[in-house]
């Protein structure tokens, strides 16, 4: 047994990987310089990025924050960075940032939109993050009444009486259901609530206000503007378009002919018309249709139109989710003996909505950005305000600074929505990878 | 009318303030506010400051009108309107008067059923070119690329002018004035054409205004003025004579500084006395207090003061009076007699 091969009797100790394949160096080699072609691409990209930064960074930082006009900006920049220096005139943002955020809202009342924003977020939080206690949802229910009151002001009795309509409806539902069955109860509840809102809520609120004046200083819609306007329109349209879209998507798949026709007709009509057309209808055409002297709030009109528009798109996105669901899921729901609504609530919708999340969030982001279109009908959203600011002789000629600021603000909102949707997708990822 | 602003009931409470039968003047006085339509932002003519206060040449007229009718130049609801929404807003009654650099044309007056109450600015379309181009007349612009705002009368005027002079051009369509400035400065077009007042305001914002020149040709007539709806002649008279009062005040040397003094006692000039209500009953004829013109003039000064403060040569816009000087000084501003 002389010609034995070498047999190792002990393990070689583990060694650190070679320095060229770990750490920064390894990452660089693997991702940026892993072949002659990638080296070339890396160098080209680096040159391109350097070129862009070399042009933009000096402009960003050779700036003036304190000037009172564009010409003053230019003088300050020339004095500080040399005769031909190009720099941003951020002074316009410093002077007008509150206007870009709040429009012409009275400055002593800025706390109201801010509080409304915070309250809205608190109300949405239990919906967005299931980890929070469910009891918070009861607070969320009150927010749709609280926020408009905060924004527009007026008497506190108005939202209270509107809320009372729901209470009366509930009482009618309870009372009549016992006597005339479920359908009768629903009809009675709706009738009582609508009659209350149409004929009694206004006078009762005014009467109560005369007895116990509780209220905030009213702020007319004309003074709304800036991001506050975009967020108001965007949040309402986003939160309402999802439930309306679900109903429309279900209606489109319904077997009831009239219901299906109405839903298809609505969706196809609204999707076939540009949003600008709907906005012009809201601002111009309605003025002719409504009786003269009618004071139908312009922002409310716009919100209705944007909501309808978003709902039609949302319905199609959700229909996509429904179509992606295997037929077996429907059959399983039937086999369990669930009725239509229970099946939708417990089995179909949770899955269909989960599939649709990227599409839904895309629609949300699109709606939020579309709110800038209202500048075309003379409302002062951030884009409209940037025009108005340029009309000031001090700031005429400023373009990039204003658009840059607006773009940054929009990016913050849209990017957070997008990140949230990714969080939601990860959390809901259960099967079928 | 109680101004409830909660949107939920606005749907319901929409039918407020029965207008049937009431005159515009009564409506405005009952409301306590004048609804005045203005631009969403035009240099020198209408712009909000950092506090949201509107000012400018067109805005000043609104303030004078509010002062004449309500005695308070701040009792105004400014309704910002775009070129597309301005006429429906006036026709539907959303606003009481429109003061938004609107050109007085036949079809707007006759077909759209508005009453132009006068001209507060005589404008006209011009061209701006870089001096380096070496062009001294618009007729030398053969083959030039022209930046032009789409959907405006300027587009049609431009086509007419070039066809009449039998020269060619290449249009570069743009949407807004701000875009036009950028395109023109970037060299996307040889020349930019719009109203001469707009060109002057635009040139004032350039880093080196002296490198650009506004050509002498004015290729269109753009008489800009305030307007009201057809059908209420009393209101049209109030709007017309408020404008005339401002113009006449300049002619007679009545300014915001001396109007109180001149109105305190009759002066030597009977027409000034009638204008300021110290003689005769002109105010009563029009349905306003005797001192309506005093209040209008005090709101922002006479026509000349407003012009100097908002768009005149001392401002960055830097417009010369030109056609807008008083008739006695070679301009077209000519107020009919207050008699």
From TrEMBL, chain A:
InterPro entries given in the database record: AA_ABC_transptr_permease_3TM, ArtM/GltK/GlnP/TcyL/YhdX-like, MetI-like, MetI-like_sf
Origin: domain of life: Bacteria
Molecular function GO labels: transmembrane transporter activity
Keyword match Repeat: no
Compartment annotation: Cell inner membrane; Cell membrane
Primary residence: membrane
Gene3D superfamilies: MetI-like
PROSITE patterns: ABC_TM1 (PS50928)
Location of the ABC transmembrane type-1 domain: 227-421
Example GO biological process: amino acid transport
Keywords: Cell membrane, Membrane, Transmembrane, Transmembrane helix, Transport
Similarity comment: family membership: Belongs to the binding-protein-dependent transport system permease family. HisMQ subfamily.
NCBIfam families: HEQRo_perm_3TM (TIGR01726)
Listed name of the protein: L-glutamine ABC transporter membrane protein /L-glutamate ABC transporter membrane protein /L-aspartate ABC transporter membrane protein /L-asparagine ABC transporter membrane protein
Species whose genome carries this gene: Rhodovulum imhoffii
Species classification: Bacteria, Pseudomonadati, Pseudomonadota, Alphaproteobacteria, Rhodobacterales
UniProtKB/TrEMBL annotation, chain B:
Gene3D superfamilies registered for this protein in UniProt: Periplasmic binding protein-like II
InterPro entries membership: Bact_solute-bind_prot3 (IPR051455), Solute-binding_3/MltF_N (IPR001638)
SMART domains: PBPb
CDD domains associated with the record: PBP2_BztA
Solute-binding protein family 3/N-terminal domain mapped to chain residues: 33-262
GO BP, sorted A to Z: amino acid transport
Keyword field contains Transport: yes
Keyword terms: Signal, Transport
Signal peptide range: 1-22
PANTHER family associated with the record: AMINO ACID ABC TRANSPORTER PERMEASE, AMINO-ACID ABC TRANSPORTER-BINDING PROTEIN YHDW-RELATED
Family as reported in the entry's similarity comment: Belongs to the bacterial solute-binding protein 3 family.
Protein name (Swiss-Prot/TrEMBL): L-glutamine-binding protein /L-glutamate-binding protein /L-aspartate-binding protein /L-asparagine-binding protein
Organism encoding this protein: Rhodovulum imhoffii
């Amino acid at each position: 047994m002389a010609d034995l091969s070498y047999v190792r009797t002990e393990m070689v100790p583990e060694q650190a990987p070679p320095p060229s394949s770990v750490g920064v160096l390894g990452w660089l080699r693997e991702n940026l310089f892993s072949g002659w072609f990638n080296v070339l691409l890396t160098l080209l990209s680096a040159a391109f990025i350097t070129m862009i930064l070399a042009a933009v960074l000096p402009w960003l930082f050779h700036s003036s924050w304190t000037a009172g006009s564009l010409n003053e900006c230019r003088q300050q920049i020339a004095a500080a960075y040399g005769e031909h220096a190009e720099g941003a005139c951020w002074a316009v943002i410093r002077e007008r940032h509150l206007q870009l955020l709040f429009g012409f809202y009275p400055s002593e009342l800025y706390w109201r939109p801010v509080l409304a924003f915070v309250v809205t977020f608190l109300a949405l939080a239990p919906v967005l993050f299931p980890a929070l206690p469910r009891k918070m949802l009861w607070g969320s229910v009150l927010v749709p009444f609280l926020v408009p009151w905060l924004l527009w002001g007026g008497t506190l009795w108005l939202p209270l009486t509107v809320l009372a309509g729901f209470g009366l409806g509930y009482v009618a539902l309870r009372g009549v259901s016992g006597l005339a069955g479920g359908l009768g109860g629903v009809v009675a509840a709706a009738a009582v609530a609508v009659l209350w809102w149409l004929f009694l809520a206004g006078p009762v609120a005014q009467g109560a206000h005369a007895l116990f004046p509780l209220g905030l200083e009213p702020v007319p819609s004309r003074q709304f503007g800036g991001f506050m306007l975009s967020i108001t329109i965007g949040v309402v349209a986003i939160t309402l378009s999802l439930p309306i879209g679900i109903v429309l998507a279900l209606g489109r798949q319904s077997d009831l002919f009239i219901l299906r026709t109405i839903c298809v007709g609505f969706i196809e009509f609204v999707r076939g018309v540009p949003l600008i057309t709907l906005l012009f209808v809201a601002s111009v055409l309605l003025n002719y249709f409504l009786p003269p002297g009618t004071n139908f709030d312009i922002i409310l009109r716009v919100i209705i139109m944007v909501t309808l528009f978003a709902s039609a798109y949302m319905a199609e996105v959700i229909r996509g989710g429904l179509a992606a669901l295997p037929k077996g899921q429907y059959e399983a729901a039937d086999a369990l003996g669930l009725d239509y609504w229970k099946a939708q609530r417990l089995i179909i919708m949770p899955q269909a909505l989960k599939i649709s999340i990227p599409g839904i969030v895309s629609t949300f982001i699109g709606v939020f950005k579309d709110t800038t279109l209202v500048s075309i009908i003379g409302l002062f959203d951030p884009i409209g305000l940037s025009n108005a600011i340029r009309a000031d002789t001090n700031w005429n000629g400023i373009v990039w600074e204003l658009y840059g600021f607006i773009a940054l603000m929009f990016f913050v909102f849209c990017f957070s929505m997008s990140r949230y949707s990714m969080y939601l997708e990860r959390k809901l990822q259960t099967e079928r990878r | 009318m109680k101004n409830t602003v909660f949107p939920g009931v606005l749907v319901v409470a929409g039918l407020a303030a029965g207008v049937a039968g009431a005159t515009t003047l009564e409506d405005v006085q009952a409301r306590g506010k004048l609804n005045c339509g203005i631009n969403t932002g035009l240099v020198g003519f209408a712009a909000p400051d950092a506090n949201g206060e509107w000012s400018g040449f067109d805005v000043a007229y609104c303030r004078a009108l509010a002062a004449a009718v309500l005695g308070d130049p701040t009792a105004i609801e400014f309704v910002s309107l775009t070129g597309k929404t301005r006429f429906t807003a006036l026709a539907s009654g959303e606003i009481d008067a429109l003061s938004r650099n609107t050109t007085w044309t036949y079809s707007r007056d006759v077909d759209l059923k508005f009453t132009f109450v006068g001209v507060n600015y005589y404008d006209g379309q011009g061209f701006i070119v870089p001096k380096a181009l070496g062009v001294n007349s618009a007729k030398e612009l053969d083959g030039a690329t022209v930046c032009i705002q789409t959907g405006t009368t300027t587009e049609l005027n431009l086509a007419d002018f070039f066809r009449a002079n039998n020269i060619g051009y290449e249009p570069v369509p743009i949407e807004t004035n701000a875009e036009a400035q950028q395109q023109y400065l970037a060299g996307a077009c040889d020349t930019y054409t719009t109203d001469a007042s707009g060109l002057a305001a635009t040139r004032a914002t350039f880093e080196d205004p002296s490198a650009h020149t506004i050509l002498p040709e004015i290729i269109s007539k753009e008489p800009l003025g305030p307007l009201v709806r057809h059908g209420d002649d009393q209101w049209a008279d109030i709007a017309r004579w408020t404008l005339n009062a401002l113009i006449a005040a300049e002619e007679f040397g009545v300014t915001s500084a001396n109007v109180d003094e001149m109105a305190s006692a009759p002066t030597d000039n009977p027409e000034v006395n009638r204008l300021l209500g110290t003689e005769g009953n002109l105010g009563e004829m029009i349905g306003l207090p005797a001192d309506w013109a005093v209040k209008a003039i005090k709101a922002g000064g006479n026509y000349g003061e407003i012009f100097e403060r908002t768009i005149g040569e001392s401002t960055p816009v830097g417009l010369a009076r030109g056609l807008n000087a008083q008739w006695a000084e070679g301009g077209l501003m000519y107020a009919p007699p207050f008699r």
